[in-house]
Each structure stands twice: as C-alpha cells, then as structure tokens.
Design goal:
The complex is a heterodimer of chains A (255) and B (568). Chain A has 255 residues and is an all-alpha fold. Chain A has 12 helices and 1 strand. In chain A, 80% of the residues lie in helices and 1% in strands. Chain B is elongated, with a radius of gyration of 36 Å. Classes of the chains: A mainly alpha (255), B alpha/beta (568). β1 of chain A pairs antiparallel with β1 of chain B.
C-alpha cells in the first residue's frame, strides 16, 4: 500500500513539476469558466423572460436546465484533456528507458499501475477542486440542489477515471506520447459517440453496444440519481482497463 | 509469395469482421455479405497456411505462452465485467440524491401503484432517441419497482408496425397506452408522473365521480383557466383524476341532480335563495356531499344555513401576527398553515408541507353537544392569529368580540342522522348588522326527533326573514353526507393552487368526500423553480471570477512552480 501511495505521490508531483500539468489545469479552469459564464448568462436571459410567463415557471430550473448543459460540455473538454494527461504515464518512461528501472524495483506491476492511476486521478481531483467556485456562485445566485451538484461532480470524476484508464492502456503500448494521445482520443471518441449511434439502431446488438459508451451512464448522475448499474459499469470499465494495463506492464518483465 | 501473405490475412480478417458486424446488426442477411465473409475466411485460412511454420515457432516460444495467458486473463476479466453489468442492469437500484427528492415518486403515486389489484400493461410508442421517451423510461422504471401487476414495454412504431396498428398509433410525437383487460387509457401529449397516475386511476377505479360546481350567484368560474381568480386549473386536476365536472344552477334546475356526488359552492357573491339552500340540504340529507368555500363578507343567508350542519362561519377576517406563519412579502391576511395547524384527519394527515390562504374567515363547530352530525375543525391558524370582526376599521384585537387564535379555518361535518338537517323545516333568519351572527330556528316536529336546541339561541334576530317553504321533493334520507366548509377560496384558484400543498388540500378533500381514500395523499411534486435573475454587477463579478481570476490564479501557480524549479 505504501508503495502504491509513494508512486501516486511521485506521479502527482510530476504533473506540477512540468508545464503540461499547469497548462492543462489553467486550460481546464479557463474553458469551464468561460462555459460557466456563457451558460449562466443564457440561463439568466431565459429565466427572466420566463418570469413574465405565468405558465413557463416550471421549466426554468437551474438544476434541470443549466447544470446538465454545463456539465455536458465538461465531457467534451475532458475528452481532450484526459488523453493529454495520460499519454505520458508509461510512454515517457518507456521512451526514456526509465521503465526498466521501475520494473527492477521490488514493486509489483499491479502496484505500479494503481499508483500511477491514483496519481493521475489526484491531478484530476485538484483540477476539479479549482472549479468549486462555480457551485459557490450558483449558491450565491440561486438554489442549486446539492444532490445534483454532487452527482455531476461524481460523474465527471468517474468519466475522467474511465478516460485515464483507457489512456494508460494506450500509453503502455507505445513509446510515443503523440501516438498514445491520438489512440486514446480515438477510442474515447468512439465510446463517447456510441450511445448516440445506437439510439437510431434497431438491433439488440447495437443497443447493447450503445450501453458500452460512457455518455448514457453519466446522464443520470447529472440529475442527482445514483443507479447501481452505472456504478457497476464505471467500476468494471476502469477495472478491466487497469487489469489489461497491468498485464501489458507485466509483459515487459518476460520480454 | 510468403512475403505478401500477411496482406491476404489482413484483408481476410477485415472481411470476416465486416461480415460479423453485418450479421450482428442486420435483420436480414444479404448474399453479398455472406460471399464476403466466405472469401474473407478463405483468405485468412490461406494466410495462416502459408505462415504456419512461423506461427508454430511463435506459439512454441515463451513469449507466446505468456502472451496467450495474458490475453486469456483479460478475456476472463472482460467476461466477468460483462456478466456483472448484466446482473447490475437486471437488479438495478436507484438512489435519489437530491435534497428535494425530485426523482422519487410521490406518495400518492406509490399508493396508487402498490394498490393495483389487476394486471396493467403500459405500452409506450416512441421513435428512438426522442427525449420524452427516455425521460418516460426512467420514470416507468420507478413505477415497475412498486408493483408486480405493472408491466412496461417500449415500442418503436416504425419497426413494430403490427403492434402500433394493434394500438391504433398515429402520433409521431409519442403515445402511451395503458391497458387493463379490455379497458385502455391513452396519453398523447403529457407523459409526466401526474398524467400517468391519473390515467392509472381512470383505468382501474372503474367509476366516474361527478363534481358539480354551482353557478348563478357569481361564483368562481370553473371554466376559467386563464385568469388568476378562476378555478380552471383545479378542474383540469380533477378531470385528470377521474372526476367529471359539471355546472348546476339550483334555482333554474329546480334541484341538485342526484348524479352530483359533491356540490362545490365556490365563493358566491350573491346570496342563495332559501329554496336553493333547501336543495343543498336535501342533497346532503340523501347522502351527498357539499364543499363550501366562502371568503369574508359573502352570502349571509348561506352562511347562516350552515348552522344546520352544526358549522358556524364567522363574519370576520383572520389576521396572522406570527411571522413564522406569514408569507414573506405578504401582509397579515396571508395565512400559512403547516404542521400543528392540521388536526388528525384523512384529508390533512398526508400533508407534510404547508397550505397558503389569503383573506380568510373563521369556520368553527357550532354546538359541541349536537348529535346526528360529527363536526371536526381540521385546520387552524397559529395561536398568534385572531379573527377581526371590525375588519372595516384599523385591525386591533378586541377581547370578547374577536375570536383569538388558534382560529379554525376549515371544518368537516359527517351526517350520521339525516333528519338532523331538517330539510323543509328550517326558518332562516339573517342576523342583524350589529351582531353579524346568523341565527337558526328549527321546529322540532318535522325534524324527526332532531335536537331542537341545536344552534345558537342567544343572538338577536332583527333582520330580514326568509321562510324556506319551498316544495321539497320526496327523497330517501341516507346517512353519510359530508359537508366541508373552508373560510377561503383563494387557495383553490389558478393563482394559488400550485403554491405549497394547496392542490393536495383541495384534491384530498374531494377524494375524501367521494370515498376515494386511496387518492388522498400528496401529489407529484411540481418543479421547485431554482430560477434567479442576475444584476449587471453580479454578472460582472461572475465573468471576472470565471474568465480572469480563477485561470489567473492557475497561471500564477504555474509561474511560481517554474521559478521555484529555476531557483533550485
């Protein structure tokens, strides 16, 4: 356990020791801040005009209109950010030949994978924490439901965890960070679009394939609903990706 | 030749994969795809055959064995994950994390669903990807959890035309059909919780209840669904819950139709004729129900006649002094009833929130000793309110004249002995302006043994007198009539019906009056709003914070880290 935490801490520190981490953090805070201001302005206009309509009040609820719209755009940003964060996790070590050093240490490949994953997730948590002023602003202006906000943040954290785990798997297969980035982005894009593609299909296979995509599992969290099937999906998705990564890392030992 | 076999193998693999994808998604296999699959398999086989030596060498290597083991383990992990997801999908459980439980079904919905005693099928017809269909699916998932009698099926009307034809589906915008045996109910516009529950009630209750709104005395218009003072919104709710709403004009019709289970007297401006009051009494005496909603100063004759049901309606105006029971921004005439305001009664027991009334008058039990009619005061104000009798002057508590809080604003009467009402035997005397107190005088011989001393006898009658000697048609007295009197009508109007639990108070009252006790509950929660309006200054602050300050702090952090590294 100590080894896992030590690797995680080293990984987390490495993000803040390089420009990549700070650029990613600043970019995320800026883009989400821009979206936040933009959607807040739009919602305000909408709410004010609906205020004069005695029958339009029910539809103007920031929990049902503003927050899903806002966090829906987070996913698009994360589709780009997570590959950028995860591309270097193994590819950099393999490229710099420091991976052999890590493997020669008395730490299991599972601990290495888990430690690096926790480090990357720690960075994502710090990034998300930097946006907490946004819910604070919403509390200042209106009355957001804490369950909806908690669910939305939880879903973004799980979504990021999925993206990072896919990125780690891709990173473990190449020494090129660019290839790792592009591969991860392509896989995530397919997974992101799958539910939309499956919606128009009639066959059960396509419907089942749509369930593999992440978007449909995020939606309910954003409404403040916690479904056990969505939790199981995220846990198993992340688990399978990390396990496959561990198998890949383990393969370096017997090559 | 062997140098190019991997190309053949690659093409073959792609063809086989394409065939597999087609086979998985297509309803009808096409010959071209079968040929492609066959050719692909042949190319793959040829490729493997030519490379068999190198494949054999690879398979015998240590790396291949480890690799095979790794892939096998990964395949097992994927299999476990798929199985876990299938099980989780089948035994899904959801938790509503919202503070207001906005996704939880309302108690009334749960009550209606769990009390289903016949199998009900819900067939939803939506095109794929339609938002309403997705929302409905989530809602019906919650429905299914509460009853094994309920089955839900979603259909695409384009790919399942036979099913669509069976249910006569023509709308492109979604249709929901509820079926129990041969009976069906259709929804074609609204697919929310309330609409579904109402349809379930209509489908399974098997009986229509008739509610009659009186007219001819400038009552609140039940057809008016646009102005603030109408009751059209209430009628829409009632019709959604299996009630048929009619209008009756007793003076013109000559009687209150027997089909009317409940007569609603919604704040008449013009007083009722004595004959009309007899018709109302006849209706109650034969087991019918009456809901009387009256604002202060209205119809002294009708108010006085309520005495025969042992209900005293004060000629006063209730003013609330306790800030906890006042509406923020409203004056003392706004009354918020909640918690201990309600007495234990089927109408008010389920109400956990508040009821908002405006410009109300007191409604109390007249004679605690009276037999044949059981009266209960079910809603009262706080102890800090009082009923101002001199309401045309500056409000001030006058001990001895004004009723002090808690002031009752709603009373229910159940008639156990119809003869106590004394149909056709009542002399109603409108009280003098000085006393503002109705007086009831009742003769005993026609009252069938009723208590002759019911009603106040201490008041002085010096006003106009009206003899109710109208010809009362013969009827069979029946116990069980119910009279509910509320000293306010605003709570049921379009303006206030959806505020707080006003809707629940009205619908619970009517459900109790017609004996539909399983409908007495709290209806689906309306959206809590959550809207706001930003000022220019607020928008500027938010913009600066989001686009400048927060990213700026991140940049400063980066620069600080960079300088720290350089310093080292």
């Amino acid at each position: 356990m100590n080894a896992i935490l030590a690797i995680a801490r080293r990984e987390l520190d490495s993000y803040f020791a390089t420009p990549l981490g700070w650029v990613a953090l600043t970019g995320f805070v800026f883009i989400t801040g821009f979206f936040f201001t933009f959607f807040l302005f739009q919602f305000n206009q909408y709410a004010v005009s609906a205020g004069f309509d005695p029958y339009g009040g029910g539809a103007v609820d920031l929990n049902e209109v503003l927050l899903p719209m806002f966090f829906g755009n987070w996913m698009v940003v994360l589709l780009l950010m997570c590959p950028a964060i995860s591309m270097r996790i193994f590819a950099e070590d393999i490229h710099q030949r420091s991976f052999e050093l890590l493997l020669s240490s008395p730490v299991g490949s599972g601990a290495i994978v888990l430690g690096k994953f926790l480090g990357a997730m720690g960075f994502m948590a710090v990034t998300f924490a930097a946006t907490l002023y946004q819910p604070a602003v919403l509390y200042w202006l209106g009355a957001p439901d804490p369950g909806v906000i908690t669910g939305s943040y939880l879903s973004m954290l799980l979504f990021s965890a999925c993206c990072i785990s896919v990125g780690m798997l891709a990173s473990a297969f190449t020494r090129s960070q660019v290839i790792a980035f592009m591969t991860t982005f392509a896989i995530l894009l397919v997974l992101f679009l799958l539910p939309g593609l499956a919606e128009g299909a009639s066959s059960d296979w396509m419907q089942a394939l749509g369930e593999v995509g992440m978007g449909s599992h995020v939606e309910d969290f954003g409404k403040g609903l916690l479904h056990t099937r969505h939790v199981v999906y995220f846990v198993t998705f992340i688990g399978v990706c990390l396990f496959a990564t561990q198998q890949r890392v383990e393969s370096f030992r017997w090559r | 030749m062997q140098r190019f076999t991997w190309i053949l193998g690659g093409i073959g693999l792609l063809a086989v994969l394409a065939f597999g994808a087609h086979a998985a998604t297509a309803d009808v296999w096409m010959v071209q795809w079968e040929v492609a699959g066959g050719v692909g398999a042949a190319l793959l086989f040829v490729s493997l055959w030519f490379d068999r030596e190198s494949i054999r060498r690879y398979l015998q290597s240590r790396g291949a064995q480890y690799s095979a083991m790794a892939w096998a383990l990964i395949a097992v992990a994927v299999g476990v994950a798929v199985a876990a997801n299938m099980l989780a999908d089948r035994y899904d459980h959801r938790v509503d994390m919202t503070a207001s439980q906005r996704h939880a079904l309302s108690p009334q919905t749960v009550q209606v669903i769990s009390s289903l005693d016949v199998p009900v099928e819900i067939h939803a017809f939506f095109l794929p990807g339609v938002l309403e269909g997705q929302t409905l699916r989530s809602l019906l998932d919650g429905f299914s959890e509460h009853s094994a009698q309920l089955s839900v099926a979603f259909h695409d009307p384009l790919t399942e035309p036979l099913v669509a034809r069976e249910f006569d589906i023509s709308s492109e915008f979604g249709t929901v059909v509820l079926r129990a045996g041969d009976d069906t109910q259709r929804l074609e516009s609204r697919f929310d919780e309330e609409s579904l529950v109402n349809a379930l009630i209509r489908l399974t209750s098997g009986a229509d209840h008739v509610v009659c709104f009186t007219e001819g005395h400038e009552e609140i218009d039940p057809d008016d669904d646009t102005s603030a003072v109408g009751m059209g919104a209430a009628v829409v709710k009632l019709e959604g819950q299996n009630y048929t709403v009619r209008k009756v004009f007793p003076a013109r019709d000559g009687s209150i139709p027997e089909a009317c289970e409940v007569v609603v007297v919604a704040d008449p401006q013009v007083d009722w004729l004595p004959a009309e009051r007899e018709m109302l009494a006849t209706h109650v005496a034969r087991g019918g129900s009456a809901l009387v909603l009256l604002e202060p100063t209205r119809t002294p004759g009708l108010v006085a006649d309520l005495g025969r049901y042992n209900i005293l309606m004060g000629d006063d105006l209730i003013l609330e002094q306790n800030p906890s029971y006042q509406l923020v921004g409203g004056d003392a005439s706004y009354i918020v009833l909640s918690g201990e305001s309600f007495d234990f009664h089927p109408i008010t027991n389920p109400i956990r929130g508040a009821v908002l009334m405006r410009v109300a008058r007191s409604v109390a039990r007249l004679d605690p000793e009276m037999v044949g009619v059981q009266v209960q005061e079910v809603a009262k104000t706080s102890a800090f309110a009082w009923a101002e009798t001199e309401y045309d002057q500056a409000p001030e508590v006058t001990p001895g004249r004004d009723r002090l809080g808690p002031v009752p604003v709603m009373a229910v009467a159940e008639i156990t002995d119809p003869s106590i009402i004394g149909v056709g035997s009542t002399r109603v005397t409108v009280g003098a302006e000085s006393s503002r107190r109705p007086v009831i005088e009742r003769s005993t011989q026609e009252a069938g043994g009723a208590d002759a001393e019911s009603g106040p006898s201490d008041a002085v009658a010096d006003g106009a007198t009206a003899d109710s000697d109208a010809g009362v048609p013969e009827f069979t007295p029946k116990a069980g009539g119910r009279v509910v009197v509320i000293g306010d009508v605003d709570f049921a109007t379009n303006e206030l019906l959806d505020q707080f639990n006003n809707r629940d108070l009205l619908l619970n009252t009517l459900a109790w009056m017609v004996g539909e006790d399983d409908q007495v509950s709290i209806r689906g929660a309306a959206g809590s709003g959550g809207r706001f309006a930003m000022t220019e200054a607020q928008f500027l602050i938010v913009s600066l914070l989001s686009i400048l300050i927060a990213p700026g702090l991140a940049v400063m952090g980066g620069v600080g880290a960079w300088r720290e590294r350089r310093r080292r």
